[in-house]
């Protein structure tokens, strides 16, 4: 055996002997000829960078109003908008409008998400379900939800039902499309695993199908939220007697740009908050995905 | 079967009182017009560790999937008798990425005791304390150990493994060999290990099969002292025989036992044993059955 060990030792020895000779690079010492590498990236992030643009806009707006370049009838001054907001809150109109609008959007979103998810599950788990459901949904997808408004008004009138149904129609499609996509993209190897472990259909759905489709579902939910607000804006401006959209429509008739701005800001805040909420859920629910990046 | 027609003594100890756990008769599987398994017979006894070798595309996975009942749509016939309580280990660890490690281990089990048993198996594969980790926080070898724990949590009577170490690096693979042997000795399942690695088959198995042209063409009991030394002359003899059965050309024995073995330091002494593909080992303890086709 010694004859075999020897070649290894002789091979190892020179390397081992060399090691102490090699000087370790001293940290912090710059080589004089080190060339500065030009950076191709955008550089270091600016603190509160996201606020710069909006603040600049606000400044321009304020300047315009101060100097009189911006007519009060074109666009109210920021401070006018602020005092109007105070008045609206004091009179309770703002809260009332906000509540009814949020209710409509929430109802439409809830039913739309439920319908989209159930349809996606049925279509994703059975071939018959897919054959029956997928075609009509794809056709519906090609028709913008708002294009159905005339028909919906004829069928349902102009009351709350019509409003909620319009939102539902806008919401369920993205939820269906993305959830169904998520279901179909579940790795067939996991299906095989479930079979080899003899999971029951219920266990299979709970452990494999639903978590596997969750990323798709949540993506669909984000689109759905955007759709819900969009549909809300439109239905609230058609023969409505309440809600943020009605408040804005009324303001348009009286040329009150300050109230219109308040409505816009409200829509913006609602959109941001709801998208943030979905993203938070996404982060929580998909934490298993981030573990490598962290 | 105490003696072989060729006059070889067969190691009878394992055969006397054990009934087969797996019994396959006339198994045929076809893809399109191509017959991949062609009237294959196979028996595996209680606690027996069987390795299945075969060229790529010879149908090893097809056989294993048939035994696991994972091929309902594949054309074919035959009789398959396997225990209901059997587990499968795939080449990839196949852990659900959205379930934590322990939840993955107990995926197929129910009941309050499942989590305790799952944690025990995890400890056995050396992953105690990683119960709450996500699968993608583990290395490839660790993931495959979780898969091993998952396969053993139900105390299966049969363990079916399809190249479970094929995707691992050489060092990890050697460690996994030791772990698998240890766990199989403790839990005593019958094992069918599909592999393309001849050394792995000899190092681990009680019996090595070669699948060729849709049938088992070689069925060799491996009798080697443990731990199994890759340099042991009989190890080399088995390897040469199996490589020949797999159609791997080797230089004549007089020059050594092939380039790979030569690097392991096999001196002229072992080469002079002159183990050829058709000859028996000098001490007569290699019992090889060339199944007639
Ligand atoms: N699902 C399938 N459809 C068609 N052919 C297949 C399928 N699975 C395996 N085969 C064919 O059967 C043969 C054996 O495959 P496989 O059992 O995977 O071989 P091995 O595992 O020994 O490499 C191959 O020629 C392969 O192409
Ligand atoms: Mg294979």
Could you give the topology of this structure?
The complex is a heterodimer of chains A (294) and B (293).
Chain A lengths: L1 H17 L30 H19 L10 H14 L1 H33 L1 H16 L6 H8 L3 H25 L3 H9 L4 H36 L7 H10 L3 H29 L1 H4 L4
Helix pairs in contact in A: 3-11, 4-5, 4-7, 4-9, 4-10, 5-7, 6-7, 7-9, 9-11, 10-11
Chain B lengths: L19 E12 L2 E12 L3 E6 L5 H9 L6 E7 L4 E4 L11 H5 L7 H12 L15 H13 L5 E5 L7 H18 L2 E5 L3 H7 L2 E6 L2 E7 L11 H13 L13 H4 L5 H4 L15 E4 L3
Parallel strand pairs in B: 3-7, 3-8, 5-6, 6-7
Antiparallel strand pairs in B: 1-2, 1-4, 8-9, 9-10
The structure holds adenosine-5'-diphosphate and magnesium ion (MG).
Give a structural overview.
- The complex is a heterodimer of chains A (294) and B (293).
- Chain A is mainly α.
- Chain A has twelve helices and no strands.
- Chain A has one domain: MetI-like fold.
- Chain A is 75% helix and 0% strand.
- The radius of gyration of chain A is 30 Å and the shape is flat.
- Chain B folds into two domains: 2-85 and 192-287, Rossmann fold, CATH 3.40.50; 86-154.
- Chain B has helices at 60-68, 101-105, 113-124, 140-152, 170-187, 198-204, 233-245, 259-262, 268-271, and strands at residues 20-31, 34-45, 49-54, 75-81, 86-89, 158-162, 190-194, 207-212, 215-221, 287-290.
- In chain B, the strands form two sheets. Chain B has a seven-stranded mixed β-sheet, with helices on both faces. A three-stranded antiparallel β-sheet of chain B has the order 2-1-4, covered by helices on one side.
- Classes of the chains: A mainly alpha (294), B alpha/beta (293).
- Chain B: InterPro entries: AAA+_ATPase, ABC_transporter-like_ATP-bd, ABC_transporter-like_CS, ABC_transporter_ATP-bind, P-loop_NTPase.
- Chain B: Residues 271-293 are annotated as: Disordered.
- Chain B: Keywords: ATP-binding, Cell membrane, Membrane, Nucleotide-binding, Translocase, Transport.
- Chain B: Residues 22-238 form the ABC transporter domain.
């Amino acid at each position: 055996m010694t004859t075999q060990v020897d070649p290894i030792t002789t091979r190892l020895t020179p390397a081992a002997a060399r090691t102490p000779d090699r000087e370790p690079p001293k940290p912090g010492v710059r080589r004089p000829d080190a060339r500065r590498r030009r950076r191709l990236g955008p550089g270091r992030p600016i603190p509160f960078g996201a606020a710069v643009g909006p603040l600049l806009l606000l400044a321009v707006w304020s300047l315009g109003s101060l100097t009189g370049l911006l007519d009060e009838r074109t666009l109210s001054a920021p401070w006018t908008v602020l005092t109007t907001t105070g008045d609206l809150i004091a009179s309770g109109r703002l809260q009332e409008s906000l509540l009814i609008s949020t209710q409509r959007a929430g109802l439409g979103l809830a039913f739309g998400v439920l319908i989209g998810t159930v349809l996606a599950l049925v279509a994703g788990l059975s071939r018959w379900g897919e054959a029956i459901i997928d075609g009509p949904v794809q056709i519906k997808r090609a028709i913008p939800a708002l294009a159905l408004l005339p028909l919906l008004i004829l069928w349902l009138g102009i009351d709350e039902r019509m409003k909620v149904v319009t939102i539902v129609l806008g919401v369920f499609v993205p939820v269906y499309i993305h959830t169904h996509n998520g279901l179909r993209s579940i790795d067939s190897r996991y299906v095989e695993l479930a079979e080899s472990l003899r999971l029951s259909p219920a266990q299979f759905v709970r452990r494999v199908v639903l978590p596997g489709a969750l990323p798709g579902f949540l993506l669909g939910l984000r689109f759905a939220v955007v759709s819900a607000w969009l549909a809300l804006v439109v239905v609230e401006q058609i023969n409505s007697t309440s809600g943020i959209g009605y408040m804005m429509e009324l303001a348009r008739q009286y040329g009150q740009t300050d109230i219109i701005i308040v409505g816009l800001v409200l829509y913006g805040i609602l959109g941001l908050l709801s998208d943030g909420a979905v993203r938070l859920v996404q982060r929580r629910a998909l934490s298993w995905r981030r573990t490598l990046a962290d | 079967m105490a003696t072989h027609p060729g006059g070889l003594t067969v190691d009878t100890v394992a055969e006397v009182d054990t009934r087969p756990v797996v019994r396959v008769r006339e198994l045929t599987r076809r893809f399109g017009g191509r017959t991949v398994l062609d009237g294959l017979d196979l028996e595996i006894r209680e606690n027996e560790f069987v390795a299945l070798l075969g060229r790529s595309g010879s149908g090893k996975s097809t056989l294993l999937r048939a035994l696991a009942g994972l091929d309902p749509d594949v054309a074919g016939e035959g009789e398959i008798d396997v225990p209901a309580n059997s587990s499968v280990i795939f080449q990839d660890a196949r852990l659900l990425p959205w379930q934590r490690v322990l939840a993955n281990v107990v995926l197929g089990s129910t009941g309050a005791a499942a989590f305790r048993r799952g944690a025990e198996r995890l400890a056995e594969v050396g992953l105690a304390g990683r119960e709450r980790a996500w699968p993608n926080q583990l290395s490839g070898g660790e993931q495959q150990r979780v898969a091993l724990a998952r396969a053993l949590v139900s105390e299966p009577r049969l363990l079916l493994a399809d190249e479970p170490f094929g995707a691992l690096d050489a060092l990890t693979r050697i460690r996994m060999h030791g772990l698998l042997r240890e766990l199989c000795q403790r839990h005593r399942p019958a094992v069918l290990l599909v592999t393309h690695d001849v050394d792995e088959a000899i190092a681990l198995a009680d019996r090595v099969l070669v699948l060729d042209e849709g049938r088992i063409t070689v069925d060799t009991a491996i009798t080697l002292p443990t731990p199994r030394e890759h340099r042991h002359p009989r190890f080399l003899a088995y390897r040469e025989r199996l490589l020949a059965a797999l159609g791997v050309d080797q230089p004549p024995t007089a020059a050594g036992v092939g380039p790979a073995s030569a690097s392991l330091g096999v001196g002229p002494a072992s080469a002079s044993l002159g183990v050829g593909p058709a000859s028996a080992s000098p001490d007569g303890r290699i019992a090889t059955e060339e199944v007639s086709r």
